[in-house]
Structures are given as structure tokens and as C-alpha cells.
Hints:
three-stranded antiparallel sheet; 2 helices; two-stranded antiparallel ribbon
Amino acid sequence: MKGESKMLDPICDMTVDPAKAAGKFDFEGETYYFCSVHCHKLFQSAPAKYLAAAKARQSAPPAAPAHQAHAHHVEANPNQTGAIYTCPMDPEVRRQGAGACPKCGMALEPLDIGAALTKTEYTCPMHP
Length: 128
């Protein structure tokens, strides 16, 4: 990680410029940078937990081919099994399997297909 101009926020996987980071935290000889104060505070609460989760996300095989990452809206194949994931910041982005949002870089979250289709307003976790 050292010597790179861009880093990944270990909470949300967004790309962070260390010079413009909302926070930084030193843990076990490494410095981690954060896109928001919210991510910084979460990491401070349990750094080992969040590093393990980040490592698991990074080592997971990509769920969709690279050419689909730029589509911004990937429909699931009904013949395949697996959860559909969406971006909390860009809900129009949907794909099968976890990963990062191709629009904003935030980690995708499972979409609950069984939930009622109603208008829901969200508060941004990075700007409460």
C-alpha cells in the first residue's frame, strides 16, 4: 500500500486520495485512509474486524465479467442462483454477487427481493 497515490477505504472500498482523506488511522504498521468521518469512526471501533472483511471482499472472485462492470445496470439471469446486490448510493446499479459499484466505488449490498416495492428515502451514511 505504501507509495501509492490512491488508496482503498477499508470500510466501503471507495478510492481515496490520501491528501484529501477525511481521516487516517495507523494500525499494525500500516496507515489506512477514509472517504468519510463515518468510515473512519467505524474502523477505529474494530480495525481487525473491518480489515478481515475487506480482505475477504478483495479475495472473492468477481461476480460479473469485466465488460458488464461498465453497464451500470446489470440484470440478473433468472437461471443462475445467488443474491442480487445493489449500491446504496446508486440503487439503479444491480448485479449478481457482491463487489464495488461501477459508478461510485461503494460496496454493493444484498437486495431484498421480497421487500415491498415502495418509495424509500435514505440518509447517506457518509453525510448524516
